[in-house]
Structure formats: C-alpha cells, structure tokens
UniProtKB/TrEMBL annotation:
Protein name: ABC transporter ATP-binding protein
Keywords on record: ATP-binding, Cell membrane, Membrane, Nucleotide-binding, Translocase, Transport
Location(s) in or outside the cell: Cell membrane
Pfam families, per database record: ABC_tran
GO terms, molecular function: ATP binding
Biological source species: Enterococcus entomosocium
SUPFAM superfamilies recorded: P-loop containing nucleoside triphosphate hydrolases
Residue intervals of the ABC transporter domain: 1-237, 232-465
Topology class, membrane: Peripheral membrane protein
Protein family membership: Belongs to the ABC transporter superfamily.
Domain of life, per lineage: Bacteria
Length: 470
C-alpha cells in the first residue's frame, strides 16, 4: 500500500527529469527546488491532471495505475491543493464549494451539512462559510482549498506551497491539525515548500530537485538553505527623502468582524515599508482602500492631497496584485515586460528573472513562481509616486525572493514609495525601513449574520442547476 513512482520521467523546459518515489500511508515527505524546476508539473502528473501521464516508468496508487481508476476513485485516492487557490474553486463561497465536492462524490444530501461543518471547523473558517471567494484574502482562500481537499477523504494529499499565504502562527496551527488527521486516517502527505522552517519538526525526508532528483534529510536541507541565505548580497536600504509621500488621518478599515484602526501615520518618499499580520487581517484590503477600491473611514493623503480628489489614483499608483494572472494583458512574456520599458532593459530583466527562454510564451503558461516574477518586473519601469505590492515573493525560492526584493529596493531609490505586503517577516526586516504589523491595530466588532444549512443547500442547488443549464 503506497503511492509509488518508479523511474517516472517527464519534461520540464525540454529537460527530462526522472523520479523514483514511494509515499506510504501516514508518511510525510517534501519536495524542494528552485522556482520553475518542475515541482508543480510533477504534482499535476501525480494527481492525474495530465492525460498523457509520465513519459516513462510506472506510477501506481495502492497497486493500481491511474488509468485503472475512475474519476471518482481518483478523487478518493489522491487530492491536490493548488499553489494558486483561485484555480481550485468552481462555486461562489466556501460552503458551496464544499457541497459541490460532496455532490461529485454522490454523498447523501442529509449527510452533507455535518461533513461541511466538520471541514470548515477543522480549518477554522466557519465564519467564512458564506463569504464570496472574491472577498477572501489569499490565506483564507488557501484554508478553504485545504478544507475541500480534506472533505474528499483521499488517502494521499498533495500540498503545493500550502503555507505560502499563511502567517507563521496559522501555518503551525494547520500543521498540527494535519498531523492529527494524518495519524487518525493514515493519510500520506507530499508537500512542496520553500519555507522549510515551518515544517522542521514534521518532514524528515525531502526530494531535492537540482539537475536531477535526490533524497536529502531535514538537517542537510536546513544546512543547504542556510548556506544559500548566507551567500546572498548584503543590503543597505535607506529612505532617500524626508518628504511625506503617503499619510493617514483618523483611518479605520472595516474587515468583517474587526476593524483596522491606525494612529495618524506618514511614510516618506523613496522608502520600502513592510506590511505584515495574520491571514485575513486586512492587508490586501488596505492596499485596495488606498486605490479607492475598498470602503474606509478617515483620510488618505498622497503627496499632501486627499486621494479621493484624484480623478484616477492609478495615474500615480501601480498595483502588483496577489494573483499575477489578474494583471496580465499582453500575449507574450516579452510583450508584458516591455510595456513602459526599452527593449534592452526588458532583455536584461528577462535574464535576471531567469525567463530569457520564455519570452515568446504566454504569461499564463509560466509556472506560478515565474508568473509572480513577471508580474513584479512588468510594472517596475512605470514612473509612479506609489507602488503597492501584494505578496511579491510568494512561491519563490530563496535566491529569487531576494532578487525580487532587490528590484523593489532599486525602484525605491528612484523616489517611489513602495508598500510591500508579505508574511516573510525575515525578508521584510532585511529590506524595509519600517514594518507595520496589522495584528497591533485590530479592533473587534460584532460577527456577521450566518445562513442556516437548509438555506444554503437550497441556494446551492439552484445555483448548481443554473450552472449546468447554461
């Protein structure tokens, strides 16, 4: 009984990789490697999302090949948590998505409410059950996607960067819960992660992707990670001006069951400011408030002028979104990067971002980590007063994360104020002149109204029937 790959081969960027892997029930293993080396591609193969499968070798799940399993049997055998949770959802809210999962498994309607409630409670997102996905933070979406994987009761779970959008405390809480369910149900877990400190007491064996796959233990991987970090160039970032670029007066930002309440704050021109806090605390909503896309109270001033009086804030502000796919406009990587920059500068950036052999591809065909790098670089050449950056190093290896922060630091030296939302506090400490922790500015308010199970199931069935009748 195991998920087993023997001499399984597949192509990544015209390079052939070969893998031998065995994951037993109740076992946890990790995969570590640079961005774009084929980690997510491998997970798609293991989950059966690539019709061709491996080019060679054998792949079995508890003795059966993927082709021997029906679609329904596959879902109870192996589940995949996507790196980008937005790619995982079909319905409008977490509760509807969980009901949709059960509907596909032909679970009796009378059993659905308890199963949904259990999955929501396990991931501690019961209060988000009926909130539209469009209103959730990246971390909240990641927890909802995890709930969907767990409700399927698969024997093996593939987690692609499961903690990238979560703060450290939430990550540790999720790990403890996964360990509980793993021991209870003998669940085999294979995960991809760049932040190995979060899994130090959980994952003992890793598959390291370099020129080929090789097995490495946790101690050796931590030593490799520390060596990489020590080899990174030193940072000397200072504010270039005492001129106030962005300021807040009597600012209050409502976020469901709490508010962010700021004292009067001001940030200087040419500074890098880090923004951190627990998942769902309102960091992305804060950026949207600056862009006048989210309701708030009080005043936000850009260069001394109330931002509400700007005809279009986007003329003075650039916004690098949390989901890079939301911002791509051009047909190719080169075209996306060349908007607002000279061809020679674009070529240099392509090389620095390790995307020089991807220039003619659609941005949507890149790996998640590559998309993130492209999204950051594509807006750096635009001259603006303020640059808002949401999770720029999400899904990046240590070296690429550092290079992205260097690019943002270089942007700040031109006089642009750069606000960076991130859960990587250590990285923010290296580059930012100031870090704002949203955990320190929260004020609780009354909980919102929650619908009953029967109301939601009726609504869900109406939406589902309409979905398939179009």
């Amino acid at each position: 009984m195991s998920l087993s790959v023997k001499n399984g081969s597949f192509l990544v960027d015209q390079k052939r990789l070969e893998l031998t892997l065995s994951l037993a029930p109740g076992e946890t293993k990790g995969i570590y490697g640079a961005s774009g080396t084929g980690k997510s591609t491998l997970f798609h193969l293991l989950a059966g999302l690539n019709e061709k499968g491996f080019d060679g070798g054998t792949y079995t799940i508890d003795g059966q090949t993927m082709n021997q399993l029906s679609i329904r049997e596959r879902s109870t055998s192996v589940s995949l948590l996507f790196q980008n949770p937005d790619m995982q959802f079909c319905m409008a809210t977490p509760r509807e998505e969980l009901l949709f999962c059960l509907e596909n498994q032909c679970i009796s309607q009378k059993d659905m409410p308890n199963k949904v409630a259990e999955a929501l409670a396990f991931c501690e997102i019961t209060h988000l059950a009926d909130q539209p996905f469009t209103t959730l933070s990246g971390g909240e979406k990641q927890l909802a996607a995890l709930a969907c994987c767990l409700i399927l009761k698969s024997r093996y779970l593939l987690l692609d960067e499961p903690f990238a959008n979560l703060d450290s405390d939430t990550s540790q809480k999720v790990i403890r819960k996964l360990q509980q369910i793993q021991h209870k149900n003998a669940l085999g877990i294979l995960l991809i992660d760049h932040q190995i400190k979060e899994t130090a007491n959980w994952v003992d064996e890793w598959l390291l992707i370099e020129e080929e796959f090789r097995t490495i233990n946790q101690a050796a991987l931590r030593q490799l990670d520390q060596h990489l970090r020590k080899s990174l160039p030193l940072v000397n970032i200072k504010s270039t001006s005492n001129e106030k670029r962005l300021s807040f007066q009597n600012f209050r930002l409502p976020i469901r069951n709490h508010e962010i309440v700021f004292p009067d704050l001001a940030f200087d021109k040419g500074s890098l400011i880090g923004i951190t806090g627990r998942s769902g605390s309102g960091k992305s909503s804060f950026l949207k408030a600056i862009l006048q896309q989210q309701a708030y109270k009080g005043d936000i001033l850009l260069a001394g002028k109330p931002i509400k009086k700007y005809p279009s804030p986007f003329r003075s502000i650039s916004w690098i979104m949390q989901n890079p796919q939301d911002q791509f406009l051009a047909a190719t990587v080169a075209q996306e990067l060349s908007q607002g920059s000279a061809p020679t500068e674009s070529d240099k950036l392509l090389e620095k971002l390790r995307l020089q052999n991807k220039s003619t591809l659609s941005p949507f065909l890149l790996s998640q980590g590559q998309q993130r790098r492209l999204a950051v670089a594509s807006l750096l050449q635009r001259p603006v007063d303020l640059l808002l950056v949401d999770e720029p190093t999400y899904g990046q290896d240590v070296t690429q994360a550092w290079q992205i922060m260097e690019l943002l630091a270089a942007k700040a030296t031109t006089g642009t104020l750069v606000l960076i939302v991130s859960h990587d506090v250590l990285l923010l400490q290296q580059f930012c002149s100031q870090i704002i922790d949203f955990n320190c500015y929260q004020k609780e308010v009354a909980d919102a109204y929650t619908q009953s199970h029967s109301q939601v199931i009726r609504h869900f069935r109406t939406r589902l029937s309409g979905f398939f009748s179009k």
